[in-house]
Amino acid sequence: KSFLNHTAYLSCYFPNSQKTDIKDLRVFWQKGDVEVVHEVYYGQEKHDNLSPKYMNRTKMDMDKWTLQLLNAGIVDEGQYTCIIQHRDKGSPRVIHRSQCLLHIIANYSQPEIEWLHTGELKPNEYLNLSCSSSGGYPEPKQMMWLISHENTTYRIMRHMDVSQDAVTKLYSVTSKLNITVPANTLTNISCLLHLGEQLGSLVSVPLGI
Predict the structure, then answer these.
(1) What's the pLDDT score for residue 71?
(2) Domain Ig-like: where (predicted)?
């Protein structure tokens, strides 16, 4: 995983790498079947075969056998293959091949609750709220509402509207809540955006009624 516009690190470590002279190796990375991302040709970096979008965006750390992909974008997501060939009696043979899958992460804004209501609130009338978050990636799992009063919290699921920017590929999400205005009790309403098991959740500032 790598954060959007940060450096992604793709590992290609293989056993016995310390015993091999880099001048006897051809190391190249490719994305998918056709795009060459980086090439080290018998100790020298070679740029002839690189896909244009990776030009001047990669560095190979030969001590750690790790490719650094600079300014990683959403279009860089996908599977990368590292292939190492050894020059053995003149003809190269593949001695190592490994793959890694790159996922890009962009932080969502803290969810914000907005009133869709004008005029004075009265008990038992309907309260309309909206919760929104934007600028994130990948697509979130769900958005839910938390309603707390008298030491009890209720979770309410409502439809989540998701849109994706055609240029940046970043997502924006919105959910709406329509509930009865609680009478005679302090109620806190929060909005929770669940991003997935490994990315956790974001919660809004609670709204007190």
Answers:
(1) 93
(2) 1-98, 111-191
Residue 183 CA from chain centroid, whole number? 42
Mean pLDDT of 125-138: 91
Question: Rounded to two decimals, what is the model's pTM?
Answer: 0.80
The C-alpha atoms of residue 88 and residue 98 are separated, in whole angstroms, by 20
Does residue 16 have a pLDDT over 70? Answer: no
Alpha-carbon distance 12 to 62, whole Å? 10
Distance from C-alpha of 91 to C-alpha of 85, rounded to nearest angstrom: 9
Sequence-distant (≥ 6) Cβ neighbours of residue 159 within 8 angstroms: 175, 176
For residue 41, give both structure tokens: 């040709």
Please report, for residues 15, 31, 62, 185, the alpha-carbon distance to residue 80 in angstroms, rounded to integers and kept in the order given.
19, 5, 17, 56
What's the full length of the chain, in residues? 209
The pLDDT tens digits for 49-80 are 888 888 889 988 877 888 999 999 999 999 99
